[in-house]
Amino acid sequence: MTRLGILISGRGSNFEAIADNVASGAIPAEIAVVLSNRAAAPGLDAARRRGLPAVCIPSKGLDREVYDRMVVEELRRRGVDLVCLAGFMRLLSAAFIRAFPNRILNIHPSLLPAFPGLDAQRQALEHGVRLAGCTVHFVDENLDSGPILIQTAVPVLDADTVETLSARILEQEHRIYSEALRIVIAGNYRIEGRRVVFKEAVSHQPSAIG
């Protein structure tokens, strides 16, 4: 069974959505470890309440390469097959990415390639777009630029604030991250350059609009 390593820096709401689906059998995997770079991350306490292995490797003051080497060692020690970034607020080094080639997923609160980086929801509002959304993508060596696996659009309302738009996007994040995990675990795709191509055996492709 696929062993997941989930990396968080904060509350871990995407982790909890994944954990719910793992517990129900909707995702055929097991959570090998929940790891954070911040000891105070609420997601670690959430993992412990679920009886899941929860590990903190503090990142403060450490060189990125040194820190990533420590994290990779921990993930390998736990037998992790697939790494899920769920609000992990650190850029991964090239060495980390090479350790898990095409086996690292991230979720980002925009329709990439629009609005990469921090504060994507605020960027969307300030730019005046009519559609925002979220993206699950494979992680490469550049910021929010890896092959896109699944996206869902969320309408931007005239009355939206960063908080209200973020909340509606987060609801969709919880849904599509688990859908993306099921696709990757089933292996019903291939990567051609920057494109994720779904195999004919897939009964349905993820919809672009949720």
Please explain how this structure is put together:
By secondary structure, this protein is of the alpha/beta class. It contains six helices and nine strands; from the N terminus they run E-H-E-H-E-H-E-H-E-H-E-E-H-E-E. It has helices spanning 13-24, 42-49, 64-77, 94-99, 120-127, 162-186, and strands at residues 2-8, 29-36, 54-56, 82-85, 104-108, 131-138, 148-155, 189-192, 195-198. The strands form two sheets. A seven-stranded mixed sheet has the order 3-2-1-4-5-6-7. A two-stranded antiparallel ribbon has the order 8-9. Helix 1 (13-24) packs parallel to helix 6 (162-186). Residues 201-210 have low confidence and may be disordered.
How many separate helices?
A: 6
CATH topology name of the largest domain: Rossmann fold
Taken as a percent bin, the fraction of beta residues is 15-25%
In total, how many beta strands? 9
Keywords:
210 residues; alpha/beta; Rossmann fold; 2 domains; two-stranded antiparallel sheet; 9 strands; globular
Please give a quick description of this structure.
The chain has 210 residues and is of the alpha/beta class.
Task: Reconstruct the topology from this structure.
Elements: E1 2-8, H1 13-24, E2 29-36, H2 42-49, E3 54-56, H3 64-77, E4 82-85, H4 94-99, E5 104-108, H5 120-127, E6 131-138, E7 148-155, H6 162-186, E8 189-192, E9 195-198
Parallel strand pairs: 1-2, 1-4, 2-3, 4-5
Antiparallel strand pairs: 5-6, 6-7, 8-9
Helix pairs in contact: 1-6
